[in-house]
Write a structure and sequence with these properties.
about 250 residues, alpha+beta, two-stranded antiparallel sheet, two-stranded antiparallel ribbon, 8 helices, about 30% helix
Length: about 250
């Protein structure tokens, strides 16, 4: 689609302008997550991961305690959000430089008790994607951001898509600013918070930034691209009902 398109009101500027340009940058956290899924599909083809194996096999002792048992939660359940892991982010402890480790983000997320027994329901959870990020690092031997960049972003030519390094909060112009609002007496004030958040706290659950053009390129390419081999696609696209939503709503994360 050429030119700007009518979209959801993402920021105060977008509210006033009423449109979002295809090349405008914005955080991907509320858009789509398949970019984090593809490196795991490759690893599956390489024989390094069994989707129905317990996460404990690949991340010993990570998903444990507070009601969690990594021997009873499969990799597939992590990817399909049927693991029962809570979506609440917790409060990860920051490193001296203000960044957060992926392991610490996972630990903080798991301080919240399970929502249900594994495989018995569906609930989206950022912590699932954080655990999946640790899985990427374990099976590739590289930081999750490097794996995503090398296996997805560069091969597909996603020139306006990035997984930022710790401490890097900038967005390449043009981008959509984000705002935080609050009431002070009779007034409601907005503060530009575009770069206020340390993105390592979200890591593989939402640290990436991209444009509509790049996300369309990815969505069109990923079922057949080398990043997800044809033999993997039927498993990657396996549908899972989303409880609390209409029957037609499904997820295909793994």
């Amino acid at each position: 689609m050429a030119g700007p398109w009518p979209g959801l009101l993402i920021s105060a500027n977008a509210i006033m302008q009423g449109h979002v340009a295809p090349a405008s940058g914005n955080p991907m956290s509320v858009r789509r997550r398949p970019d984090r899924r593809s490196p795991r599909g490759e690893a599956n083809l390489e024989g390094k991961v069994e989707l129905d194996a317990p996460i404990q096999r690949y991340l010993p002792g990570v998903v444990a305690g507070n009601g969690y048992d990594g021997t009873k939660i499969s990799v597939r359940q992590i990817l399909q959000h049927t693991s029962g892991i809570s979506d609440k982010a917790g409060n990860p402890r920051a490193n001296p430089d203000g960044t957060h480790s992926l392991r610490e983000a996972v630990r903080a997320g798991l301080t919240n008790p399970p929502l249900f027994a594994p495989g018995t329901s569906w609930k989206y959870s950022n912590t699932n994607f954080l655990v999946a990020g640790m899985l990427i690092e374990q099976i590739t031997g590289t930081p999750a951001g490097d794996a995503i960049t090398a296996r997805i972003i560069k091969p597909l030519g996603l020139t306006r898509t990035s997984y930022p390094r710790g401490g890097d909060r900038k967005l390449e112009a043009p981008y959509l600013p984000g705002y935080i609002g609050g009431r002070v007496g009779p007034f409601f004030l907005w503060t530009n918070a575009t770069t206020a958040v340390e993105l390592t706290a979200f890591a593989t659950a939402g640290a990436m930034a991209s444009t509509e053009q790049d996300m369309v390129t990815f969505d069109q390419a990923w079922p057949t691209a080398s990043s997800c081999h044809r033999r993997c696609w039927p498993r990657c696209a396996r549908q899972c009902p989303c409880s609390g939503f209409p029957p037609s709503c499904t997820t295909a994360s793994g």
